[in-house]
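Q: Given only this backbone (253 positions), what sequence would you predict?
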């Protein structure tokens, strides 16, 4: 059994070395749609392409960054290029717990499951703080579907952002699925710039105080931001980054 990973990117030079170092350890191919990156994203991708099966497609984004890209079109294009028995949608700022490498072979051999879901852990402000659900803002500490059986017709529905997957016009929650207790870590708001231009998910990250820092504890009338200390262990590649070590496609030792 083989696994294809699909990912659209735009200016992800901070995450590319960590992402590719982690994903190439278990994926048989990685399919990347580049929306027109102007940073060092492609430089990092070319380094890893020398050693791994990574395919890049240029699908320039138009309009506002991170907003006007036709996500279902881009993701469905990548699905059409995938050759694996299973597909994983893994964004550039996401890294699986290292246990995924050992678990995947058995997962992909299962015949009773078409969809796998995982705990989704969202870091907030730094890699040691986790944002969790609150009333009115229940999107931070849930299970998330990120892997499914290929070639059975699953595609993305026609929505511009955060589109869902569907089969025969129905969202795929009805398909046989299994929960795997291996976290998927989301480092978007914890590493590197943390906030990008036009990166305003719910109106709580583009608000700056007089120091130039986002107001990470912003409150609205609809919900509050609640966090907890991170009590677990980061994937090895994240620990490597946090310790200041350079990340290479192939380890020398």
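A: Predicted residues:
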């Amino acid at each position: 059994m083989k696994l294809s990973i699909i990912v659209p990117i735009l200016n992800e030079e901070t995450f590319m070395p960590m992402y590719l170092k982690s994903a190439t350890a278990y994926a048989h191919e990685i399919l990347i749609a580049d929306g027109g990156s102007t940073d060092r994203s492609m430089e990092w991708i070319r380094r890893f392409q020398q050693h791994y099966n990574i395919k890049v497609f240029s699908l320039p984004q138009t309009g506002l960054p991170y907003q006007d890209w036709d996500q279902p079109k881009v993701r469905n294009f990548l699905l059409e290029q995938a050759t694996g028995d299973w597909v994983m949608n893994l964004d550039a700022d996401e890294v699986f717990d290292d246990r995924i490498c050992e678990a995947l072979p058995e997962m992909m051999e299962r015949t009773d499951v078409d969809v796998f879901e995982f705990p989704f852990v969202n870091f907030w402000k730094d890699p040691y703080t986790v944002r969790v659900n609150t009333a009115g803002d229940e999107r931070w500490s849930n299970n998330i579907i990120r892997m499914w059986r290929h070639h059975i017709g699953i595609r993305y529905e026609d929505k511009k952002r955060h589109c869902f997957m569907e089969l025969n016009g129905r969202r795929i929650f009805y398909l046989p699925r299994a929960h795997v207790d291996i976290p998927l870590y989301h480092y978007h708001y914890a590493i590197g710039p943390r906030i990008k231009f036009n990166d305003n998910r719910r109106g709580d990250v583009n608000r700056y105080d007089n120091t130039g820092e986002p107001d990470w504890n912003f409150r609205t009338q609809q919900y509050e931001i609640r966090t907890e200390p991170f009590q677990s262990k980061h994937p090895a590649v994240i620990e490597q980054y946090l310790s200041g070590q350079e990340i290479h496609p192939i380890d020398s030792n």
